[in-house]
Amino acid sequence: MGYGQINDGLNLITIHSAKTLHLQDYGLSVGNAANLVILPAENGFDAVRRQTPAVTRFATGG
Fold first, then answer.
1. How confident is the model at residue 61 (pLDDT cuts 50, 70, 90)?
2. Is the pLDDT of residue 16 over 60?
3. 3-state class of 58 per DSSP?
4. What residues contact residue 12 under an 8 Å CB cut-off, 6+ apart?
């Protein structure tokens, strides 16, 4: 699996899943609920490749 495929997979389970489920108010915009996971990685590919554990997590909105 290559770099592009990993990034496509990450988009599939984040951005595109919200669109598929017809969720309202998703994305990075003022007033939207947010969940944030901080990983010790250079990018998404690095996080998946090394299976890095979360440094911290913030969750809002259920």
1. low
2. yes
3. strand
4. none
Largest CA distance in the chain: 36
Count CB atoms within 10 A of the CB of residue 49.
Answer: 14
Q: How confident is the model at residue 32 (pLDDT cuts 50, 70, 90)?
A: confident
DSSP code of residue 57? E
Question: Which residue, 13, 6, 17, 43, is CA-closest to 52?
Answer: 43
DSSP-assigned states of every residue in 2-50? -HHHHHHHHHHHTHHHHHHTT-SS-SS-TT----EEE-SSSSHHHHHHH
Cα(18)–Cα(29) distance, integer angstroms? 14
Q: Domain residue spans in the chain?
A: 3-58
